[in-house]
Write a structure and sequence with these properties.
Layout (H helix, E strand, L loop, with lengths): L9 H6 L3 H6 L3 E2 L11 H7 L3 H4 L5 H13 L6 H4 L15 H8 L10 E7 L5 H11 L12 E5 L12 H17 L4 E7 L4 H13 L4 E4 L1 E4 L4 H4 L9 E5 L8 E2 L7 E10 L5 E6 L6 E7 L11 E4 L2 E4 L6 E9 L2 E7 L2 H15 L57
Parallel strand pairs: 2-4, 2-5, 3-4, 5-7, 7-9, 9-13
Antiparallel strand pairs: 1-6, 6-8, 9-10, 11-12, 14-15
Helix pairs in contact: 8-9, 9-12
């Protein structure tokens, strides 16, 4: 089941966007589901190319290593495709899991004190608590359930009922967000807020609900193309003292909302290669991650890149390439199957960064997306990869310092958050 994305052409933008038209806009999840995906088609096609071609977007210094990996691929599966599988010790599902996230990004497994991560999504995920239990058991994580006070699910207004309608694609998105958040911060509480629909009004209001219910961190893995009138909805993300993340999108160079909002930490995507000890071997910009210069949002005072006079997206990045995606358990089923999936997209990157904010336990000091800019030296600077063509090269090609595809960089511990 596909979720439509309403795009506005120049004529519509010039005419303005009425409240009713904005309300009719539908967001889509920013996820990519391996080779089975009907969404993120360009990303799937790109990630399915031979390794020698995918190396073309990497810096020259990485080319030899990448070609060597390609030649060895038929003999031994690399960590980038093996994901969480370590067959010699256990039969784990394909895709990165808790050990890979912690090893790559030098993370502790638990927050120093109680933190609540809110996941804002659309429609109902009827099996999510049971699926989270399967995920936790599989990866030897603490059980996070409603019975022990760790997990809570509410509708967009914060109530247990009425329950929203079901949607298979959004259900998979929910599984990804909830399970990855628990994987990165194993002792964090999870608050799942299910908007009644994928309309931007319903989803934005659900963010307010999450804030009202005491979330320390709020993760958003949904996107729409920028539209005239988006700034009027930015108020829903203006919650000082709460770290709010938003996925930058999965269609390559170009800006999406709410990542463009100055009140969020916009999260771009990378390709992450690990060694057998789960240490980061290399990380480069994912060719489908979103980036660019906002058409409507003013530049925040804490952004200093000179090429874009408006808000630049993203702020930071994390793994998103579906080839180096996460193992996700979904018993409800999507695209004719159910069980374990390997899922990528900036939908993966957003909850990773949200959970790292929770691990840092520093949300009280977070104002909009500014915190990483004051601590950029604590991030891992990505200097290779591109997500398309653009007039201002830094907005679509990674280089030293701030760049469009990966922002300030990726996590290297919790100090940057």
């Amino acid at each position: 089941m596909l979720v439509s994305l309403l795009l506005f052409g120049p004529a519509a933008q010039k005419a303005g966007t009425s409240a009713s038209l904005v309300g009719a806009m539908r967001a889509k999840p920013a996820l990519c589901v391996g080779t089975h995906s009907k969404e993120c088609g360009a990303a799937v096609a790109a990630s399915s190319k031979k390794a020698t071609k995918s190396c073309a977007v990497k810096a020259r210094k990485h080319t030899k290593k990448c070609l060597t990996q390609a030649r060895n691929k038929t003999k031994k599966k690399s960590r980038s495709t093996a994901g969480a599988n370590t067959k010699s010790t256990s039969a784990l599902p394909d895709g990165y899991g808790p050990a890979q996230f912690r090893g790559a990004y030098n993370l502790p497994s638990a927050a120093p004190y109680s933190q609540t991560i809110a996941i804002v999504t659309a429609y109902d995920s009827p099996n999510i608590e049971k699926d989270l239990s399967v995920y936790s058991t599989t990866f030897s994580l603490p059980i996070c359930s409603s019975s022990n006070g760790c997990f809570r699910k509410v509708n967009g207004t914060g109530e247990k009922a009425p329950i929203p309608a079901r949607n298979a694609l959004w259900e998979l998105e929910t599984s990804l967000d909830v399970e990855v958040a628990h994987a990165v911060c194993s002792n964090c509480k999870i608050l799942l807020v299910e908007a009644a629909s994928s309309s931007v009004n319903d989803l934005a209001a659900a963010v307010d609900t999450a804030a009202k219910l005491g979330a320390d961190v709020i993760s958003n893995s949904w996107v729409v193309k920028e539209f005239r009138g988006e700034t009027a909805l930015d108020q829903h993300f203006n919650h000082p003292g709460i770290a709010i993340t938003a996925a930058s999108g999965d269609t390559g160079y170009g800006v999406k909302w709410p990542a463009a909002s100055p009140y969020v930490t916009a999260v771009g995507g990378t390709t992450l290669d690990l060694d057998s000890a789960n240490a980061r071997v290399s990380e480069s910009a994912w060719e489908q991650g979103g980036s660019g210069c906002s058409a409507y949002e003013s530049k925040p005072t804490w952004q200093t890149d000179s090429g874009c006079k408006q808000r630049t997206v993203p702020d930071v990045a994390a793994v998103a390439n579906p080839d180096t995606g996460a193992a996700v358990y979904d018993s409800y089923g999507y695209s004719g199957r159910r069980g374990w999936y390997k899922v990528g997209g900036t939908s993966l990157a957003a909850p990773i960064v949200a959970a790292i904010y929770a691990l840092a336990g520093n949300a009280d000091n977070v104002v909009s997306g500014s915190y990483p800019y004051a601590h950029s030296s604590m991030l891992f600077d990505i200097q290779s990869g591109t997500n398309g063509k653009c007039a201002l090269t830094y907005l679509c090609t990674s280089a030293a310092g701030y760049d469009g595809p990966t922002g300030l960089g990726t996590p290297a511990g919790t100090a940057g958050f």
